[in-house]
Design brief:
Chain A: GO terms for molecular function: NADH dehydrogenase (ubiquinone) activity; NADH dehydrogenase activity; ubiquinone binding. The complex is a heterodimer of chains A (507) and B (478). Chain A is mainly α. The relative contact order of chain A is 0.10. By secondary structure, chain B is mainly α. Classes of the chains: A mainly alpha (507), B mainly alpha (478). At the A-B interface, helix 5, helix 6 and helix 7 of A face helix 18, helix 19 and helix 21 of B.
């Protein structure tokens, strides 16, 4: 297993090789990921504390830094999602990128490697390392292969994320030293730091450092401004990776680090985080409605959907957390699909302005159908993954905070409005352009078909995913309830009435 | 004077002898190549001679010099940097100056001055070293005398260096009046006896701080930096940025640590303010620069601010952080200036940002080296600069300097902006009209290029796997 993991990381660092090699290498890794999943699907994830793979090498012993990768259900699912979208993003840039292919795929693979690293790292130093590693190639990807306004967008992206990342580094160091002083054992290892005892005020600051990094990445309402720019200027694969994966590193970070490391501090600000999440839901939806640029529209829907993640993650109950996980996956799929759609439309029409589109259904029913499916997914139609996810989050949130959950539900209505507007403007209505456009090619059909299957699968039968992450989620809940026991008895009462498992609701 | 003393001073002796030898050889009219080779050789021999480290110094020498682990480390860095600069110099001067040979004497002399500074434990060698370094630099800065900026820069440096020397002398005099000694550790003893320092001492201390601040180009004493960087020949700029600053910084550390400057709250406060101002203002001023040399000048101000931050944390980790950061800063800065040197043409330095438009697409190696160097300066992971910054932050947070840590984070974000600007320029689509000068000296070109590659590999290798250098620094420091 350890060797497989190493190959996983190093195998992708093959620079300057054309697209086939990129595709093959990622397919191999994807296959590997799937094998791990399948071979563990039957096993109980409660074994061995829920950690499937644990790989540790000494790196910088003097600082207590080790090259420590570990995988549990949560990271396994994230990795699978990463690789799946990775394959698709390589496929969708197959023809789009004509110049400097070698360097392009080098960057793309490097981003993917960074993201996989983020999902696997259990050493905080290593985590920060990967966190930053994925930034530079992304910056280059936007800066070199993006559209007109790319320089501005790439700056904004890089500086936002880097600034917040440095805050996280400060927080990591703070945690490191506080824990080191208390225990005499200086270590960046996640498992060592998990049990760190931190004074509440310190914990609050440290938690904020982490949280800011993650919510900027997510991005949540006041920090979202980089997202539409970066999304709309990036090449299609860049948008897919950004929306489908990079945003998810933020969500992952909250689940993996913020809550377990600082349960009490998190509990204290939970209402604020939920409020911000709800603001994000409404705000993103309203802005999405007002956009005329197709990619920007999709980007704002991301802001809205990420608000749900925020809401769910800080509702702290099993239902909501499972919903968050599903939301992460389904949003990755549906937004990825919408971006690929926008990319292929741009390739055909050379515009992203939806006012210049219209009546495309007649020419390209294939594009229209998939567009319909994913627009519906995005507005949360039952039968598709997003519905389950958002439904579960709202159920969970309802237990934690009724008014906020109610407001968030309004977001669902708004999402229906913008999705319908998107469909109306682009595919229906009078035809504005005289030229007829080609429908999907075989390659695009493959991409879309796999995404459609995936989203319907998560919509109809999400149980395998939930099973996989269940152990991680129940652990998260433990952290939270331990904190609640000490601090806030109010919320605890509500937790007691939770259903033990969500099995029946999920179906 | 014992054998071990001689051994200890060997690096200095070799450099001094070499400069005399070269002077004699020039009289025989040997050609540029041989002179350069001898100069390089003397750097190498001197570097090697560092490895046999003396166990103790005899009393007479101990009064003047302090050869501890830290000075050995900085000495090695200085000699290494001298060697690299020497390699880059050949191409640069062969094309531009009909008479490049004296340059090497001055280079050696400046290095000698820097070495004396690094090991000084007494005001005498401190001042003498400083003057050797400065006077050599006056000439070096204005070496390409046909260029307009060169003369301006030389004069500017002359004036300000003279001023700062005056401050330094006056400060030393005041401290001497108060304590009756010029030896660092005796001054410390005196202070220990007194408990509270007198006003005269504090004034002298402040004056010395000003002089050191000038040399290190810390805010608010930074005005000269950009002009001098811009006007000086590239290898000399690299020399100022690395050797001269490192030497001065070592003096600062030796002097302040010996007398325990963190005992006075006022001095800690002032240094904190200077560090904050340097980090922020250095990076802010660099934001809008179109000239790469000026940009690097301002960025070096900020980097000195980071170093001060590490120095302020005044714990064991702090000194390690300073050492590591100096190391990272050296290889990075040398790499960056090396690229600029190689790209420079006969008429002018490749110092305008437009020279780099689309560089990646016609000479990818230079662009990659530059990108890595800039990322390392910006402190992005996978580079030595990141580990350096990480080290400094650890030291600072260990000493509870949260305020400074946050300023460092802020200013690195600002810094990121202009480093990214250059990188973006290099990767943007350029017009292909770059004049590809035919390589006059292919052998030296290859030599310089391989040196650059070596530096780059160091940047990456120690960025990923820094443990060797950390262990080395620890072993040297103990």
């Amino acid at each position: 297993m350890a060797g497989g993991l190493l190959a996983w990381l190093s195998g992708k660092w093959e620079p300057y090789l054309p697209r086939t090699i990129a595709l093959i290498s990622i397919l191999i890794v994807f296959g590997l990921g799937l094998t791990i999943w399948i071979s563990h699907a039957s096993l109980s994830f409660y074994d061995n504390d829920g950690w499937i793979i644990d790989f540790k090498r000494i790196w910088i012993p003097d600082f207590g830094i080790s090259f420590h990768l570990a995988m549990d259900g949560l990271s396994l699912i994230m990795v699978i999602l990463t690789l799946f979208l990775g394959v698709l993003s390589i496929l969708c840039s197959w023809d789009e990128i004509q110049e400097r292919q070698g360097f392009y795929y080098f960057n793309l693979l490097w981003i993917l490697a960074g993201i996989v690293g983020v999902f696997l790292a259990t050493d905080l130093f290593l985590f920060y390392f990967f966190w930053e590693v994925m930034l530079i190639p992304m910056y280059l990807l936007i800066g070199i292969w993006g559209s007109e306004n790319r320089i501005y967008a790439s700056y904004k992206f890089f500086i936002f994320t880097q600034a917040s990342g440095l805050l996280m580094l400060l927080a990591i160091l703070g945690l490191y030293f506080i824990n080191g002083r208390n225990t005499g054992h200086y270590s960046f290892d996640y498992f060592d730091l998990l049990n760190a005892e931190i004074a509440p005020t310190d914990a609050k600051w440290l938690m904020l450092g982490f949280l800011i990094a993650f919510v900027v990445k997510l991005p949540v309402f006041p920090f979202h401004t980089w997202l539409p720019d970066a999304h709309s200027e990036a090449p299609t694969a860049g948008s897919v990776v950004l929306a489908g994966l990079m945003l998810k590193t933020g969500a992952y970070g909250i689940l993996r680090f913020v809550i377990p490391l600082f349960p009490q501090a998190t509990a204290e600000i939970a209402w604020l985080a939920m409020l911000i999440g709800v603001i994000g839901i409404i705000y993103g939806a309203v802005l999405a409605f007002a956009q005329t640029d197709l990619k920007r529209l999709v980007a704002y829907t991301s802001v809205s959907h990420m608000g749900f993640i925020m809401l769910g993650a800080f509702s702290f109950n099993e239902l909501a957390l499972q919903g968050v996980l599903l939301q992460i996956i389904t949003h990755g799929l549906s937004t990825g699909a919408l971006f690929i759609l926008a990319g292929s439309l741009k390739e055909r029409l050379h515009t992203r302005d939806i006012n210049k589109m219209g009546g495309l259904w007649a020419d390209a029913p294939g594009i229209g159908t998939t567009g319909l499916i994913f627009a519906m997914a995005s507005c949360g139609l039952p039968g598709l993954g997003n519905f389950i996810a958002e439904f579960m989050i709202l159920m969970g949130a309802f237990k934690a905070n009724i008014p906020l959950a109610v407001i968030a539900t309004i977001g669902l209505v708004l999402s229906a409005i913008y999705s319908l507007r998107l469909m109306q403007k682009v595919f229906l209505g009078p035809k504005t352009d005289e030229h007829s456009i080609k429908d999907f090619s075989l390659r695009e059909i493959i991409i879309m078909a796999s995404l459609t299957i995936a989203i319907i699968w998560t919509g109809v039968y999400p149980q395998p995913i939930i099973n996989t992450v269940n152990s991680s989620i129940s652990k998260l809940k433990e952290y939270y309830s331990s904190a609640v026991m000490i601090e806030e008895p109010i919320v605890k009462k509500e937790i007691k009435y939770l259903p033990k498992s969500i099995d029946n609701d999920g179906k | 004077m014992t054998v071990s003393d001689l051994n200890a001073l060997m690096p200095l002796t070799i450099i001094a002898v070499a400069s005399v030898v070269i002077m004699l050889l020039i009289a025989f009219k040997l050609n540029h190549k041989i002179i350069q080779a001898i100069c390089a050789l003397s750097f190498i021999v001197s570097l090697v001679s560092l490895s046999n480290r003396p166990s103790y110094l005899s009393n007479s020498l101990h009064q003047l010099f302090i050869i501890d682990g830290f000075s050995i480390f900085v000495l090695a860095l200085i000699l290494f940097s001298g060697l690299v600069i020497n390699v880059f110099s050949y191409i640069y001067f062969e094309e531009k100056e009909e008479n490049p040979k004296e340059y090497y004497i001055l280079l050696l002399l400046c290095t000698l001055g820097a070495e004396v500074l690094v090991i000084s434990n007494h005001f005498f060698p401190l001042f003498i070293g400083l003057e050797i370094l400065s006077i050599g630099l006056y000439v070096l800065i204005a070496y390409l005398r046909t260029r307009n900026f060169a003369i301006e820069a030389g004069i500017k440096y002359l004036m300000l260096a003279a001023f700062s020397s005056a401050f330094l002398l006056f400060g030393m005099a005041l401290i001497y009046t108060d304590t009756g000694t010029m030896q660092f550790n005796l001054i410390a003893d005196h202070l220990n006896k007194l408990g509270m320092p007198s006003i005269i001492f504090l004034v002298g201390f402040g004056l010395m701080l000003i002089a050191i601040g000038f040399k290190l180009a810390l805010v608010p004493f930074h005005m000269w930096t950009a002009d001098v960087y811009q006007g000086a020949p590239l290898p000399v700029t690299a020399f100022i940025a690395t050797v001269s600053k490192a030497a001065m910084f070592t003096v600062l550390i030796h002097f302040f640590n010996t007398i325990g400057s963190n005992r006075f709250q006022i001095s800690t406060l002032i240094i904190t303010l200077i560090a904050i101002a340097s980090m922020l203002i250095g990076n802010l001023l660099a934001l809008n620069q179109q000239n790469l040399k000026r940009l690097l000048a301002y960025s070096s101000i900020a980097h000195l601010g980071y170093l001060l931050f590490a120095f302020l944390s005044s714990n064991k980790l702090g000194i390690e952080a300073v050492s590591f950061y100096l190391f990272a800063y050296f290889i990075t800065t040398l790499g960056a200036f090396g690229v600029v040197t190689i790209l420079s043409s006969k008429e002018q330095d490749a110092d305008h940002i437009d020279n780099y438009r689309g560089l990646f697409w016609h000479s990818p190696i230079a662009a990659i080296v530059m990108t890595i160097a800039l990322l390392s300066l910006a402190g992005i992971p996978l580079t030595a600069g990141f580990i350096g910054k990480f080290y400094i932050l650890s030291a600072g947070i260990d000493a509870h300097l949260w305020m400074l840590a946050i300023v460092l984070v802020l200013s690195s974000v600002i810094g990121l902006f202009y480093y990214l600007r250059i990188i973006t320029t290099m990767f943007s689509k350029g017009d292909k009209h770059i004049i590809k000068e035919n390589l006059l000296h292919p052998a030296y070109y290859i030599l310089s290029a391989s040196t650059l590659l070596f530096l780059t590999i160091c940047m990456i290798w120690f960025g990923i796997y820094p443990i060797q250098i950390i262990l080395f620094i620890r072993s040297v420091l103990n």
